[in-house]
Amino acid sequence: MVKDTERTETVAEDDPGPSDGQRSDDAMPSAPIATESDHAIEDPEPETGSLKKKVYARELERLQIELVKQQEWIRRQGLRVVVIFEGRDAAGKGGVIKRITETLNPRYAKVMALGTPTDREKSQWYFQRYVPQLPAAGEMVLFDRSWYNRAGVERVMGFATEEQVQEFFRSCPEFERMLVRSGIKLIKYWFSVSDAEQERRFQSRIADVTKRWKLSPMDLESRSRWVEYSRAKDDMFAHTDIEESPWWVVESDSKRRAHLNCISHLLAQVPYEEPPVEPIVLPPRQQETGYVRPPISTQRFVPAIY
Questions:
Q1: 21, 171, 220, 267: which has the fewest C-beta neighbours closer than 10 Å?
Q2: How many Cβ atoms are within 10 Å of 107's Cβ, its own excluded?
Q3: Which residues pair with 142 in a beta bridge?
């Protein structure tokens, strides 16, 4: 059984950018694509556990290059990969999804963040609306929250009855085993953040008009039900942390460390080989053969303000 270690210590910041906190002793190991001697990350300020931007940027670039290689391997081999991201509000799920996908081909790496179910969807088998989002050959789908809404927000906020929750606990392991038997690689991450760091991030969103949209009434309510969510998460792990699709906990008080640790672990979960690099030759530009460009006065241009 995987145990969550949500912490209560305060977090000190290093410099502007994603916040940095204490790195857990059992953080996920680096992917096997680099040796420890080549890419060891030394903490520049042990008293805060911070990670310098320069170190973070260097390691992120290296890992994103490996993600591109992995995606090409998935595409060529026709693999199907599902990655689930769950966790507390403001735990950093969206940030790591962005770092994973920003260098990948969006045709084969898709992010699914389903909204509130419609009345019709509410009348369906609970897992039904998620099934069409599952990957075809060569694709990886990242769920920014998933069918685990039933065990978390729906249970705590009273959107699901206790009978529905218990049925979910009975059905979910079998549903996931069925996915795995069909050939899907299913990876589940839980992002753990301390109460002090979550509050700091909420306050940051309140103060920043460009981030205020991230703070929903549901987020505020979840803050006041911290213990209820903890109990719900523990119950969810007890029922769904199975051998075929175990939960992996990502300590995320330090966003930078969480990004690197999660990506490194993801690379290790789907072994891959470096694909051959086919030479690309840029063809010569077509020669003009009587083409006359229309007068500039016939076109509308965006004002050059800058």
A1: 220
A2: 9
A3: 83, 111
Cα R_g (the chain), whole angstroms: 22
Q: What is the pLDDT of residues 43-81, one digit of tens each?
A: 443 333 569 999 999 999 999 999 999 999 999 999 999
The structure's pTM equals: 0.81
Question: Residue 228 sits in a domain of what CATH number?
Answer: 3.40.50.300
- 98: containing domain: 36-298
**3 lies in a domain?**
no
What CA–CA distances, in Å, run from 88 to 145, 190, 238, 277? 10, 8, 17, 41
Query: Could you tell me if residue 118 is inside a domain?
Result: yes
Which pair of tokens denotes residue 286?
Answer: 């077509």
Q: Identify whether 74 is part of a domain.
A: yes
In a domain, 14, yes or no: no
Mean pLDDT score, 75-99: 96
Q: Tell which residue, 256, 289, 284, has the closest CA to residue 95.
A: 256
Alpha helices (H) along the chain? 36-39, 53-77, 93-101, 119-122, 153-156, 162-181, 195-207, 217-224, 226-240, 255-269
Per the CB < 8 A criterion, the answer to whether 57 and 260 are in contact is no
- The count of domains in the chain is 1
Sheet hosting strand 247-251, strand order edge to edge: 109-112, 139-144, 80-87, 184-192, 247-251
Q: 40 phi and psi, to 5 degrees?
A: -65, 135
What distances in angstroms separate CA 121 from CA 129, 148, 160, 274, 282, one per listed residue? 7, 16, 14, 42, 49
Give the residue from 236, 239, 255 showing the smallest Cα distance to 86: 236
